Amino acid sequence: MTRLHLPKFSLGVGDRFAHQAKAQLQACVLAKGEGVDVTPVWNKSNREHLIIGSSPKETRAAADVAVREFGWTGAYFVDADHINLENFERFLDPCDFFTIDVADQIGTAFNEEEMEKFIGRHPELQGEISIPGIQDPFRTDKAFVMQVAKQFLAAVQHASKIYQEICAKKGEGTFITEISMDETTSPQTPLELLIILAAIADEKVPIQTIAPKFTGRFNKGVDYVGDEKQFAREFRDDLATIAYAVNHYGLPENLKLSVHSGSDKYSIYKGIRAGMQEFNAGVHLKTAGTTWLEELIGLAEAGGRSLNLAKEIYATAYAHADELCEPYEAVIDIQRNKLPLPAEVHTWTSDQFVRALRHDQDDAAYNRHFRQLLHVGFKVAAKLGQRYTDILRENETIVARNVTQNLFERHIRPIFIGS
Question: Average per-residue pLDDT in the chain?
């Protein structure tokens, strides 16, 4: 059976208000001009649709228009991001990529009989396991495999249930499947990843990407926080583990890692690229709110009432910070005393606003707390409705330039092309 195939390099692009699809695709066009094919995947979660009042059909329509106007002949997809059994059906028609989120099922109640069957099917997971590319062999026993299975088997089986429900309604092979385990507290080790992949293979879920939880913090819109060398080792070991699992368990040959909240994590891009080159591997880098922030930067650069609107959005976000931050507490780190007062921001020039918001860590004016609050503040713009989207249209050229440059120069180039 012919299945949809996700190419080697892919970029998840979020477009909160469905106005930047052309600017985002332009970044992939520029990559192609440098000889590298990067497949765009427009992703938007059910939560974001509910906040903004949009629908998955709008995301699909914006992507299709951009593809048609550019004459783009490469692959592209629309991702039902972080779906579950309660909300997947609204994504069935417009989407051909499904990110199945099972973080809530990790560590939940397990079936003892199913656990024993899994252990019995996989004697190779006990004893010494040598994975090409990883220097030291792993040594395990039944107790360890049982411990990992107790943590993850129920989550994998839940993912299988969601996958089968989508297949029943959409048809097998008509969509890309990703399993996401990143929104949890503890990172998965390469050995745990191997056991998870064995379980996924048992369930016959043809995943083409998997999003594990990595070491360190992946805060929204700002750089990675953690040991960059440790991340690089972990990333390459995960790549080795995936290659091993593909060969041993019959998983899709193009299976690759997905890095969620991957935008703006500049300090780990070198390690990601090094691992990809060493193993001739692909990667799916998921970006989202970075485009929304570039919209604000474009409006601030435009000056006048566009700058005033950006200031108004910040003032409202500041006043409602608790409400806006609460859903994202695990992935933001805002020190309230480092946030500028709205009265101060009101006096800022266009240049001051842009420098505080733009992710340039060499600029002394850059304020990561200001940036993070505005990152989660897209709900404020959503409530402005047409007032916000009208001003986006008025400033399309300057906003699009920022969106394209951000994705191409700061994300695509260091990972997929090389600086």
Answer: 96
